[in-house]
Amino acid sequence: GLRNEDFQEGLERLGLRRPGGSHALWTQQVSDLFKLLDKDSRGVILMEQFRSAMELDTRDWDVPSKSSSPVKRANRSRSKLFTPKRAFAGAEVGLTSPQGLQAAAWASEAESVGKASVGKASVTRLSPQMCERFASGRFKVKWQPHAALRRVWTTAGVAGEGALSIWAPLDMVPKGRFHGARRGSNAAKERIPLGHFACSSYEAPAGMQLLEVTDEKHSGLFVKHCTEALRHLLGVFFPHPVRFRKVWEQQGAPAPLRIWEPIPPAPEFVAPGMVATCGDEQPILGEVRCVPRPWVERAE
């Protein structure tokens, strides 16, 4: 079990203490949280108490050992950090996407690294080599402007509330400039939904961007636009979450709202954004995707 001083040290190592803040206030906050978790007043937090308080299940708790974790091996050679999700996509978390992903890299590594089972599905375990940055490659990853949005929630009509609205991205397969018999894009590409967007207006937010992945081999006017390899790559590097955890809610009319945190399928992935709903049902898993942990860094 964890004693209070061990608990405080762990929170500080996770970066939860505000730099320059009052030491006395921080110590008191940690002590209050420790007492809340230590329901039996033993002076020790047991694993099951921590799991229950944090709403963790076996998937959240499944962290590979140092010898088998590609993420830990990669983190030793990278200075990038990841911050807990406390806002919508793009508000606190920045993504550093590789300029290109070589087909041989992810194809061969995906077969040798192994897979983690999540329910009936399986998730490819990533190695550091699979997440390396290349100047060129078959698959191009790039931020693109995105204007297709659906309004999920708004404070319009609520007395005493300022303007606020939440929007979900639509049309993940972008349309191309050519609208002939094929009607659509002249490239095999798809955009990555990382979460919903919030803005202090009733109008759709401007200047939104999404990651777009393009299969250069199947792009162009005179090639077959096969998306099988692209879909496989998205499943390997940008899997959907396995479930959602409700982290905040506002009940009652006229504007009920729930905020959900996506739970990644394996420790190698993170979910930078949140998802909003008006009802109490969990969002559909396809509403958002996760990203490799080595590609995420803290945005100051």
From TrEMBL:
<feature type="domain" description="EF-hand">
    <location>
        <begin position="25"/>
        <end position="60"/>
    </location>
</feature>
<dbReference type="InterPro" id="IPR002048">
    <property type="entry name" value="EF_hand_dom"/>
</dbReference>
<protein>
    <recommendedName>
        <fullName>EF-hand domain-containing protein</fullName>
    </recommendedName>
</protein>
<dbReference type="GO" id="GO:0005509">
    <property type="term" value="F:calcium ion binding"/>
</dbReference>
